[in-house]
Amino acid sequence: MNQFAVIGGGAVGLSIAYEFARSGCKVVVIERGLCGQEASWAGGGILPAAVFDPKDHAYEKLAGLSAKLHRQWAEELKAATGIDTGYHRCGEIFFKHEAISGDPLTRDLPSLSARGIRAELLSAKALKHLEPNLAIAPADLDDLQVYHTPNSAQIRNPRHLQALKAALLQMGVSVIEQAEVQSFEVKGDYLHAVQTTAGRFVADRFCLAAGAWTSHLTNRLNCTLPVKPIRGQMALLQMEEPLLRNVVHQGGHYLIPRLDGRMLVGSTLEDVGFEKKTTDAAIAQLLQFAKTRLPLLRDASVEKCWAGFRPASPDGYPFIDALPGFANAWVAAGHFRWGLFLSTGTAVLMKQLIQGEDLSLPLDDFRLTRNAESMMPLGRSDR
Ligand SMILES: Cc1cc2nc3c(=O)[nH]c(=O)nc-3n(C[C@H](O)[C@H](O)[C@H](O)COP(=O)(O)OP(=O)(O)OC[C@H]3O[C@@H](n4cnc5c(N)ncnc54)[C@H](O)[C@@H]3O)c2cc1C
Question: Tell me, which fold does domain 89-151+228-312 have in CATH?
Answer without folding.
Answer: D-Amino Acid Oxidase; Chain A, domain 2 (3.30.9)
